[in-house]
């Protein structure tokens, strides 16, 4: 069953690759700048959240809207035709960040990219940002003319023991340095995902969170929030709406930057206090304080270790899909 909701008060080099050749990227090159300035993108995102709530069919078996009126995306709960009409002529650019250090990616990156060029924002301008600790040539793929790549090197941080902290710090620097000027919407994902269905316009929003595939179906009293009051990620018992997964987050670039900066601050504070807490727990604290405007259902990040419940009609994004 779905969890009950409770109320609360609530320095690396950059290398651009486009069609296999180096290319400098800015928003004017991508065509997104004047069409969707910050205020314009906010109105577009808010409009998208409203459109995403206009389902094609009723799904009484699932939660489709939260207590704070944020849509929860499941197959059949949004109209692709309405979304196409809403975004027609807006000339958007969407970024996708993936952090794939060699010590943890373990061959995931090529599988991830091959699926992403097919299913991530089909028909839209897309910039893939690859955060790497050693330069590798992109796999031999044939991206569309609308798709381009940038490789962001972690530089001298390759030795950092906390990979999440390293990845967030690199992402923060590039968000401040150039990404916020290059894309209108941004998603950051883990490298062990594979897109099995279209991850399209329905997912765009001001602040987008992913419902954890396992914990969504558990009672919120058992959520693995950080329970130590001395931690910056602390959430008291009896509070919290959902448990969010860290494999996918997204939204307007400045919203993603705010999330990254707050998680970094909390993780550093815990390190100084000699507390070992995870990025995912700090992410949940962020969404506890700043509720997301759109939620991705477990269909957008299903873990193949679990049997499919009847509520999940179609796995759009899978973790470890070799056994899906």
How would you describe this structure to a colleague?
- By secondary structure, the chain is an alpha/beta fold.
- The protein has a domain at 32-93 and 162-323: Spore Coat Polysaccharide Biosynthesis Protein SpsA, Chain A, CATH 3.90.550.
- It is 29% helix and 19% strand.
- The chain has eight helices and 13 strands.
- It has helices at residues 27-30, 38-52, 80-87, 102-105, 108-119, 163-182, 253-272, 279-289, and strands at 14-18, 21-22, 72-73, 93-99, 125-132, 147-153, 185-190, 193-195, 207-211, 244-251, 294-296, 302-303, 317-319.
- It has a ten-stranded mixed β-sheet with strand order 2-1-6-5-4-7-10-9-11-3, sandwiched between helices.
- Strand 1 and strand 2 (21-22) form a beta hairpin.
- Helix 2 runs antiparallel to helix 3.
- It is globular, with a radius of gyration of 19 Å.
Instruction: Strand order, main sheet: write it out.
Output: 2-1-6-5-4-7-10-9-11-3
Approximately what portion of the residues adopt beta-strand conformation?
15-25%
Overall CATH architecture of the domain at 32-93 and 162-323: Alpha-Beta Complex
Q: Could you name the CATH class of the domain at 32-93 and 162-323?
A: Alpha Beta
The major pleated sheet works out as: 10 strands, mixed
Order of helices and strands: EEHHEHEHHEEHEEEEHHEEE
Give unreliable regions as ranges.
1-35
Number of helices: 8
The mean pLDDT is: 82
**Radius of gyration using CA atoms only:** 19 Å
* Number of beta strands: 13
| Approximate shape | globular
CATH superfamily of the domain at 32-93 and 162-323: Spore Coat Polysaccharide Biosynthesis Protein SpsA, Chain A
**What is CATH's topology name of the domain at 32-93 and 162-323?**
Spore Coat Polysaccharide Biosynthesis Protein SpsA, Chain A
- Derived from helix and strand composition plus strand pairing, the structural class reads alpha/beta
User: Termini, distance in Å?
Assistant: 22 Å
Helicity, as a percent range: 25-40%
